[in-house]
Amino acid sequence: MAPLERGLAVLRAICASPDDAVRPGDLVRETGLARSTVDRVLSTLTRLDFLRSDGRAFSLAPRAMQFGDAYLAVCGLSEVLEPLAVRLADELDESVSVAVPDGDGVRFVIQIPRRRTMTLSFRVGDLLPAERCAPGALFAAQWSAEQRARWSRRLVGSGPPRMFFPLPPAPDGPTPQEVESAFDERANAAAKEGWALDDQLIEPGLIAIAVPVLDRADGRVVAAVSVVSHSSRHSADSLREHALGRLRETAARMQEALTGSRLQTEPHRASGSGPGPRVASSAPAPIDEPKRDLGPHYLRSLARGLAVLVALGSKRGGMTLSAVADVTGLPRATARRALITLREQGYVDCLDPEGRLFAPLPSVLELGYARLCGRTVEDLVRPHLLELSRQVHESASVAVLRGSEISYVARVATSRIMQAAITVGTRFPAYATSMGRVLLAGLPEAEREARIAATDLRALTRFTVTDPVVLAETLRRVAADGYALVDQELEEGLRSMAAPVRDHRGRVVAAVNVSMHAGRVEADHAREVILPALTATAARISADLAAMGDRLDGAAA
User: Fold this and answer.
1) Among 73, 79, 86, which residue's Cα sits nearest to residue 250?
2) What does the pLDDT read at residue 472?
3) Could you read off the pLDDT of 80-135 as tens digits, one per residue?
4) Percent share of the chain, pLDDT over 70
5) What pLDDT, on a 0 to 100 scale, did the predictor assign at position 159?
6) How far apart are CA 308 and CA 329, in angstroms?
7) 3-state secondary structure at position 247
8) Of the candidates 509, 500, 506, which has an alpha carbon nearest to the alpha carbon of residue 537?
9) Tens digits of per-residue pLDDT, 386-403?
10) Euclidean distance between CA atoms 511 and 485, whole angstroms
């Protein structure tokens, strides 16, 4: 499926770009594809909501998380091992990572960073060269001759390019032969001693120690858990003394957890998938729409191939060709062509020697997962606020509930002589604001009543509702109506309207509002003209939050 190959090439180029938004001309240069081909790929990916465009450049949309989600759902590591990794990080007061082998690289699947001035910038999905980190020495012991040959070719620059995390040059610029010799020595020591050390291999000051997580059935290294620190806190020796014992205990508990969860299958090819599986939370979107309705720039084969990739995360134990066809609604021949292409591209392989059960490989995490994991709440909502403000010609904001107050996390203000002096971080009493009422209305009724009882309902203007009975009834109406309009209760002359933003569990975790001057916009006009745009924006933000799940940096939840 040539359109699928080209679409994956464009996605990789976007994900590898140092810029968040990439212009089509840059993608033409990076991929070597014709401009017309790039345009058709971009049109299709945008139509599928894997990309967004401002009319000039393209950036990843949260829905692209589905590719990585498919692998993480099948491997099951995050679900089973993350609580143990969190516990270890708390015990040692150091950052903890869990990684899986990915060819001649090391792919992170769990990151538990400690928030310090000097902290890790690696994200789930990032890939490191095996020779530049502690887990790589542990994984190299199980490399096949073919894998080691591919690694050697990469060292001398003759292998296929890989999307490694950008690292500073290795100290003293060793030759490939020196790198190979040193890595062989570290890998042999790791296999013998059962642990590996990274003494500033990644960058000066960074120190890490890793131990393997084994499959008890056959002794394979299916993952590695690392403790990561800085030379300002530890030397290599002191980190080993501080962490190695608890690391080994944690690895043993992780092995027990994997055995108890029966997450012991992996692709038959020794390419390094972690154990699996669990059911993916996101199902593939409908993709088999009539081409005539979508225009000549829509690449149906690309859409179908990506639907197959997402669908592979929806069933335990891998999926047969027939199951893939059933889940996607595609003909078996079409699903088969997509699976062959995805396997050739290194994103899918078989769980069984017979080649009947297909599953995603860790490499699918390179298709936007790491880039999107670095997004903040403000990154996610700001484009939506800009569009809302453009539509209604008023200021727009997003806030979350902090105790009895709302806290602004994003804002787009219009250029007017008279406007509210509000910035990110500004706080107001929740009871007297439209966003606060939406957020309070989204709470369970018992918690809502407790919050009202604990709040000093002071009159901020002559219009402020201060009667707890009236406020409680107002919040019930807000919950039923799905929006709140507050008229000059926070400040005279200020009218605002808000709608709820929900996360992937359906909880109200934020609110989006439009604020306006009461003398300029009547309440009825706000309901008739502004409310539809506001609720549509809240729905779009909610959809993006649902796609991001719990992986948004600084998530409202």
Assistant:
1) 86
2) 93
3) 999 999 999 999 999 999 999 999 999 999 999 887 655 667 889 999 999 999 99
4) 89
5) 74
6) 10
7) helix
8) 500
9) 999 999 999 999 999 998
10) 12
Q: How far is residue 69 CA from its own chain's centroid?
A: 8
Collect all residues with Cβ–Cβ distance below 8 Å to 330 and sequence separation of at least 6.
288, 304, 307, 308, 324, 338
Mean pLDDT across 299-311? 95
Element (H, E) at 50: none
Q: What is the DSSP letter of 529?
A: I
Strand partners, 377: none
The pLDDT value given to residue 54: 87
Alpha carbons within 13 angstroms on the beta-carbon side of residue 525 total 9
Which tokens is 256 given?
């027990």
- Contact 350/522 with Cβ under 8 angstroms? no
The answer to whether the CB of 27 falls within 8 A of the CB of 38 is yes
Residue 482 backbone class (left: φ over 0; alpha: ψ -120 to 50; beta: rest): left
3-state secondary structure 495-519: EEEEEEEECCCCCEEEEEEEEEECC
Q: Beta-carbon neighbour count of residue 495 at 10 Å?
A: 24
Q: Which two tokens stand for residue 450?
A: 């407790």
Contact present, 130 and 183 (Cβ < 8 Å): yes
Contact 74, 318 (CB under 8 A): yes
Amino acid at the residue 223: A
- Beta carbons of 105 and 127 less than 8 angstroms apart: yes
Tens of pLDDT, residue by residue over 465-491, are 999 999 999 999 999 999 999 999 999
| pLDDT for position 418 | 44
- Residue 468, Cβ neighbours under 10 Å: how many? 14
Percent of the chain with pLDDT over 90: 66
C-alpha 268/C-alpha 372 separation (Å) is 30
Q: Give the C-alpha separation, 258 to 261, whole Å.
A: 5
Both tokens assigned to 101: 């082998």
- What sign does the CA torsion over 110, 272, 72, 555 have? positive
The Cα–Cα gap between 481 and 493 comes to 24
d(CA 545, CA 557): 10
* CA dist 461 → 60, 395, 456, 469, 557 (Å): 44, 22, 14, 19, 31
User: Could you give the 3-state DSSP secondary structure of residue 378?
Assistant: helix
DSSP for 179-241, please give it: HHHHHHHHHHHHHHHS-EEEESSSSTTEEEEEEEEE-TTT--EEEEEEEEEETTT--HHHHHH
Inter-axis angle of helices 321-328 and 332-344, nearest 10: 110
Helices then strands, counting H and E runs in the chain, come out as 20, 16
One-letter identity of residue 175: T
Q: What integer is the mean pLDDT of 73-82?
A: 89
pLDDT value at residue 556: 46
- pTM for this structure? 0.84
